Amino acid sequence: MDRYSRPVRGLRISVTSACDLRCFFCHGEGLEDKSGELMTPEEIERIVRVAMELGVDSVKLTGGEPMMRSDILEIVSRLNGLGLRDLSMTTNGFRFAEMARDLRMHGLKRVNISLHSTRPDRYAMITGLDLVEAARRHSQVLEAVRAAVEAGLNPVKLNVVILRGINDDELDDLIRLAEELSSSSEIVVQLIELVGCGLAAGKGLEHHYLPLSGLEERVARMAVAGITRSLHYRSRYQMPNGVWIEFVRPSGNHLFCMNDTRLRITHDGRFKPCLMRSDNEVEFLTAMRSGASDEELKRLFLRAVEAREPFWKPPIKEGKVRWSVGEK
Ligand code: SAM
Prior knowledge:
Blueprint: E1 10-14, H1 41-52, E2 58-62, H2 72-80, E3 86-91, H3 96-105, E4 110-114, H4 120-127, H5 131-151, E5 156-162, H6 171-181, E6 187-193, H7 213-222, E7 225-228, E8 235-238, E9 244-248, H8 254-258, E10 262-265, E11 270-272, E12 282-283, H9 285-289, H10 294-307
Parallel strand pairs: 1-2, 1-10, 2-3, 3-4, 4-5, 5-6, 6-9
Antiparallel strand pairs: 7-8, 8-9, 10-11, 11-12
Helix pairs in contact: 1-2, 3-5, 4-5
The structure holds S-adenosylmethionine (SAM).
């Protein structure tokens, strides 16, 4: 539990900073540079085991592009062996179609696949690939989604960062595409608000930022069912064709931050308490490599939990009122 009564239940672990795509808006999970030593599968397993002893029960693997790690199956398998409640990955689809079954067999439960446009020409503009390569890669991503569904990963989420003037007119196409791709698994289209932190900071992305309130209102009017998730207080709506649409709307949203239960880990072994900041990270890999005990690693983990602070806070005067999440 942090100082705002937020439990830490999940780890979002970047297993590499390398990526085969160059999405122009990429925040690189809040990192400002991509250097640093990579954690080994054993080190990733150890830090997760230690965190589990303090209440963590879910892990999402990210990057860079996690599928660029040649030992990704070993990482998944080791984490699965720890008995996590949830083990998932976010990927751009690289090598995913051919490995979906193996990943499932080694313990991956669900996957988010980034597909920022239904159209290959826009996908080219977003990812920095030339048109021919973008068309090939785009169909590879669709294959990845089909393979994920066939392998029984559930739900399969399509991550779409909404970019004003580029892909903000694709809602209907996304709903249709998701219906086409789904069969046994639930497909959730996850619409993500653009944030300008980490590698994306200072890139002049403001004109592509679109607050998602308008799109959400439109989706809500079409919905036949809806839920508010406890994580980030995110809304999810079901469309008449069965497809779910989820909104990730962090900007200026204290409900998002107050309902955040995840701590980040960087590829080079640092706890990162907030996507938006780099000044409160806690490094643990050096300690681990110099023979730190599990108890010492737990202390570093708890130091990072202690440093957690909602980036967007409730609209109250700092220091005057204690504010926490919970029942009343
Ligand atoms: N390479 C993997 C992928 O593409 O899913 C994992 C890493 S990527 C940084 C993780 C997620 O963050 C992706 O869905 C990506 O679209 C999203 N993302 C990247 N930059 C973002 C930004 N500036 N604002 C919001 N989401 C962003």
